[in-house]
Amino acid sequence: MARTKHQAVRKAKDQPKKKLQFGTAVGLETERRLEEQRKKKPHRWRPGTVALRDIRKYQKSTELLIPFAPFVRLVREITDFYSRGKVSRWTPEALLALQEATEFHLVELFEVANLCALHTRRVTLRYRLLILSRVIWNKLRAGSASLEAGAAKLN
């Protein structure tokens, strides 16, 4: 294809030329204002970095993750509902044991749900996956109990 030359495009001279400002006091003040407006943005980590850091942190730790006071209020509310005021006192050791068992149960549930999510090639946990993981988990527990009962019959 043949090369063609383009005509130079002339701009209209409607706009006046910008005047250069040298280090005057007014210019320095405006520069300071501009610097204040252009504050440095806070550092942002790449997506997933903070999540991985949190995962490592919680896997290393041994402390309970559910705050104790709200957990105690929930336990008391549930016991009041089901016992209709008959059971009103809990020892701190019993509440601590109940909280540890609850957190262990939730961790196992989320582990199975995470395996279900990975199986479906997802990263995000969904409500349906939690329901599915509960069904699978209950089947596994019932199956292990029936296996133990069958083994006991053989012996």
Automatic annotation (TrEMBL):
Compartments where located: Chromosome; Nucleus
Pfam families in the cross-refs: Histone (PF00125)
Record's keyword terms, sorted: Chromosome, DNA-binding, Nucleosome core, Nucleus
Annotated ranges, domain Core Histone H2A/H2B/H3: 47-126
Residue ranges, compositional bias (Basic residues): 1-10
InterPro entries, alphabetized: H2A/H2B/H3, Histone-fold, Histone_H3/CENP-A
Main localization, broad class: nucleus
GO CC entries: nucleosome; nucleus
Family to which this protein belongs: Belongs to the histone H3 family.
Descriptive protein name: Core Histone H2A/H2B/H3 domain-containing protein
Gene source species: Paspalum notatum var. saurae
